[in-house]
Design brief:
heterodimer; A: about 400 residues; alpha+beta; Butyryl-CoA Dehydrogenase, subunit A, domain 2; four-stranded antiparallel beta sheet; 10 strands; B: about 375 residues; Butyryl-CoA Dehydrogenase, subunit A, domain 3; 11 helices
Chain lengths: ~400, ~375
């Protein structure tokens, strides 16, 4: 038996012996992922046990080095682990921006000390991270950020407002961009810094969306004392770090929208049959039927393009130009799908809550409202098109 | 299904690209049109392409072919599509050739396919009529019984390369339904009238007046014509989509070059955000088309149950994308885009023609929906 084959069978045995019984088959289910953190509340003790058991093994982040809390696995081994977990339908033990955003950034830009301080706590689900980038006056033009970092010896004193902080109220630490030099070109005076949200002077306020409650918050810093040792990428070197991280975020969002039905409750056709009669199985409204087909064709074309990039990566090719379309196309497709879903439901899509509307109908209305933000968050579609034009098509500034 | 080119496919694509760049620049299309060339393509060049093995890609080694698949053929067709090369791939290899491969008798295959593969025999498939639109079963051409054989009466339109063909396969309706008949060039009662199409593609009217056909001239069984046509046209559709992909890619490239070099108001017009965004959008469309053409070709090769759906996906998206890209291209070229002198007009016309061939986008969305069960 080859080493990898042995690894696979050892992994399978370990998973079968150590995963809580109730979690076999739980993958993709209704329950949200485990985000961890100091404020975490574990409704299901098995989920906490699963997190602890996998963290102990280093498998919450399989490819990170063991001295950082990871599993030290090779890419092939990590792939095998992922396959075995998928086969057993086991959910991921831990999710969050620690694993997907700040973790990789620490690995890329952090000092040994910083890596040893933060990565193990991410892997164990002890610390939950959020992102403090955007400000009321710095959205698409992120470099225009004004959150001040006053030099105070071996500390900075940070004052300013961050907006669109996902899960600010549930997070323990925030990675943030602050202005350390207001006298140079805007990108050149930015510093990337890690802040403990328990520090005095940090307050959080939730942001309510047109779709109702949201995970977003505003984060206020009032002379928050942060050690200079928490800087990543050097003082005034933050823009480079930020750009790298934004790339990770874009891929993460694109992955969310990449590819078809994603275990959606109902297909568009099933949804349509609830409101539109069919004759011999054929939807009797030809216009809606054509619009459904159009969305399905676009979704399939998109999924095939995502697959084409993945197949290329597996074959060892560099990501092709087509990967730049994921975020802009995936989000706009998703929005079109929601528009059609709402239109099909007609007046039944007009409920906010309460009588006269089914649960499904209330949900589709909220989902449509929320979807209007997809082409804005994570880099607006307009910015994405500018990036494609410049970086892929080589059009001049 | 792997949506990557194998090394062999990469090699084939590059060979085709180099060949087309050297031997079939877009200026050929202009010259053939302006000189009112009787054939409309180059028999010599076709022979050269056949010598490279391109005509034989889908045929068995016994027949002199390469026994490869659509995944290989589309790489060649895309390259040819870039420069709108007029050689008779669609008519001879994909339409008539596949009809013979899938439905021809042993002797028909032996008589015609080796010659086709060698680039020596040109064939056409006459399935379209004035009232048929995209319905392969809408056949008014008649096949009347005549002793043991048949007499064919009717008129087929826009038959690709019929004027240059050594034989034409014709769909006709008899008491048993629609059947296909192989009619050699010069058969008594056949009249071929060259047509002039907006996109310059070589096509002709084929009129049949008491054209005699024996039972042995049937391609496929009696009444099996419609099903055979559907299978054949599905294959030809994938090939056409590959040509469209090449042509729309070239259109995009020409547009980008123009945006970078045309200066107005002291700046290259490609610096204007409105044009940047429109360029980004047509780039996205082309990339999506690349994926669906690859998928459709591979689905055919794998005999996938989903092949029909993926073919409709490809044709629907390529139809709209190619039209969009070229309409945008002409607009962005400005006044010169409207001149005959510039090449972009050829692409815009071809986009429209390709849209109206083998079913337009709406027709294919309907087929997608039907195959999906709604």
């Amino acid at each position: 038996m080859s080493d990898l084959e042995k690894f696979r069978s050892d992994t399978r045995s370990w998973l079968e012996a150590n995963a809580p019984r109730s979690l076999f088959g739980a993958r993709g289910g209704a329950q949200e992922g485990v985000w961890g953190g100091r404020k975490a509340v574990y409704q299901d003790p098995d989920r906490k046990r699963w997190l602890d058991v996998m963290a102990e093994k280093g498998w919450t982040s399989p490819t990170w080095l063991t001295e950082y809390g990871g599993g030290g696995l090779s890419p092939q081994e990590a792939k095998i682990l992922a396959q075995e977990m998928r086969d057993l339908k086991l959910p991921a033990p831990l999710v969050g921006f620690g694993l997907t955003m700040i973790g990789p950034t620490l690995l890329q830009f952090g000092s040994e000390e910083q890596k040893k301080e933060h990565l193990p706590r991410i892997c164990r689900g002890e610390i939950r991270w959020c992102q403090g980038y955007s400000e009321p006056d710095a959205g698409s033009d992120l470099a225009a950020l004004q959150c001040k970092a006053e030099d105070d010896g071996d500390h900075f004193l940070i004052t300013g407002t961050k907006v669109w902080t996902s899960y600010a109220d549930l997070s323990d630490w925030i990675f943030s961009l602050v202005r350390t030099d207001p006298n140079v070109k805007k990108q050149a005076g930015i510093t990337f810094i890690l802040i403990d949200m328990d520090s005095p002077g940090v307050t959080v306020r939730p942001i309510r969306l047109i779709s109702g409650a949201s995970p977003f918050g505003e984060t206020y810093f009032e002379k928050v004392r942060v050690p200079k040792a928490n800087v990543l990428g050097g003082i005034n070197g933050g823009w480079t770090v930020a750009k790298a991280l934004l790339g990770h975020e874009r891929n993460m969002i694109a992955d969310t929208f990449g590819g078809g039905d994603r275990g959606r409750r109902k297909t568009l056709t099933e949804h349509a049959r609830h409101y539109i009669p069919s004759v011999d199985g054929k939807l009797s409204d030809p216009v809606t039927r054509d619009e459904i087909a159009r969305i399905e064709l676009d979704a399939r074309a998109f999924a095939l393009t995502v697959q084409r990039t993945r197949d290329g990566a597996k074959a060892g090719h560099k990501p092709g130009p087509e990967s730049s379309l994921f975020k802009v196309y995936g989000t706009e497709l998703n929005m079109r799908r929601h528009e059609l879903t709402v239109r099909i439901a007609g007046p039944q899509a007009l409920g906010w809550e309460g009588e006269g509307f089914e649960e499904d109908e209330l949900a589709l209305t909220r989902d449509w409202l929320r979807s209007r933000g997809n082409a804005i968050e994570g880099g607006t579609s307009e910015i994405q098109r500018n990036i494609i034009a410049k970086r892929v098509l080589g059009l001049p500034d | 299904m792997q949506l990557v080119l194998t090394e062999d496919q990469e090699f084939l694509a590059r060979t085709a690209e180099d060949f087309v760049a050297e031997k079939s620049p877009i200026s050929r299309v202009r010259e053939l049109r302006d000189s009112e060339d009787a054939t409309g393509f180059s028999r010599e060049l076709w022979k050269e392409m056949a010598d490279l093995g391109w005509a034989g890609i889908l045929f068995s080694e016994e027949l002199g072919g390469a026994d490869l698949g659509m995944a290989e053929l589309v790489t060649v067709l895309e390259a040819l599509g870039r420069n709108l090369a007029p050689e008779p791939f669609l008519s001879t290899v994909l339409l008539a050739g596949q009809a013979l491969r899938l439905g021809g008798s042993e002797s028909q295959q032996k008589d015609w396919l080796p010659g086709l593969v060698a680039g020596e025999k040109i064939l056409a498939l006459a399935y379209q009529e004035r009232n048929s639109r995209y319905d392969l079963g809408a056949v008014e051409t008649k096949a009347e019984p005549d002793g043991d054989g048949f007499l064919l009466y009717g008129e087929k339109i826009q038959v690709l390369d019929a004027h240059a063909a050594d034989a034409i396969i014709v769909s006709a309706r008899g008491s048993g339904g629609v059947s296909l008949f192989l009619v050699p060039k010069g058969a008594p009662g056949i009249e071929i009238v060259r047509q002039s199409r907006v996109d310059g593609r070589n096509a002709a009217i084929v009129r049949l007046d008491r054209v005699s056909a024996a039972k042995s001239d049937l391609v496929g069984g009696i009444g099996a014509g419609r099903d055979l046509l559907e299978r054949v046209v599905d294959l030809a559709t994938v090939g056409l989509c590959a040509e469209m992909l090449g042509a729309m890619s070239e259109s995009l490239d020409q547009t980008l070059a123009h945006l970078k070099t045309r200066v107005q108001f002291d700046v290259p017009i490609g610096s204007f955000q409105a044009l940047k965004h429109r360029a980004a959008d047509i780039f996205i469309e082309v990339e999506l088309c690349r994926s669906v053409v690859m998928a459709a070709a591979r689905a055919v090769d794998e005999g996938s149950e989903e092949a029909g759906k993926l073919i409709s996906l490809a044709k629907a998206r390529c139809s709209e994308a190619f039209v969009l890209v070229t309409n945008e291209a002409v607009q962005m070229f400005g006044g010169v885009g409207m001149t005959d002198e510039y090449d972009i007009g050829f692409y815009m016309k071809r986009a429209r023609a390709a849209e109206m061939t083998f079913g337009d986008a709406a027709w294919h969305r309907d087929r997608w929906a039907r195959l999906s069960g709604y």
